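Section 3.1: Structural characterization of target chains.
Under the original work plan, the team committed to producing a structural model for every single-chain target entering the pipeline before any wet-lab resources were allocated. The record below documents one such target. The sequence was received from the expression subgroup and is listed exactly as submitted; it comprises 253 residues.
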Amino acid sequence: MQQWFETPPGRYLHAWEQQAFDAAVADVFGYHALQLGLPELEALRMNRIPHHWMGLQQGEHPRERNYHLVADSHALPFEANSLDLVVLPHSLELSADPHATLREVERVLVPEGRVVISGLNPASLWGLRQRRARLLQRLGVGQLFLPEAGEFIGYRRLRDWLRLLNFEVETGRFGCWRPALSTDKWLARYEWMDAVGERWWPIFGAVYFVVAIKRVRGMRLMGSPLRRRAKIATAPVPLANRGQSVHQREETP
């Protein structure tokens, strides 16, 4: 996935997703936010929550951030109800067990906390080309258009998973309607399809984008929550923080 973002369609998708994440997280408040996976996309750069964490999945390499932690997405090193915002840029489709990852996100989010998810849409021109390429590969010919790693998760399927975990979908949208082309020149020729696609066939965009809120039945929030710290689990987790230890950081006011 990291190398694919350096290709022309990868840069096109990256630019759209960066704008979508910037708009979605700008007005989300709290004290602790986590981006799980895909460090090439700065999904939290416009968010004003004071403490940002970057969780890296297996095979991913860190970039300069305030925090880095390497963790199993099925067992995040945070206590329950300790994060205000979690962003998952393609993290579910790259996970070995995406439903378990979502359950873990629900566990660590505070009531009324938000999760922001992006994923590749199997019901798109890009998804159709990928499936065709996989069939041809079985015959020993053809080349994949999208990254080989990961599996598509349909938009409706994702919404069903969120509903089962007591998330309420706040917004859902699609993006990137240009055909599955491999060069900047041809992608630029079909720029007009983004405006037309958003108006006339929105559900066939190459990527979907979902913002959901964790709801807790029978719970009513009153007043402003007290300032809190993100409680880290006691199990050892590889962690790097620009030369500071976790204990040094926790003692910083």
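The helical segments are 8-25, 98-108, 125-138, 155-164, 184-189, 192-200, 246-250.
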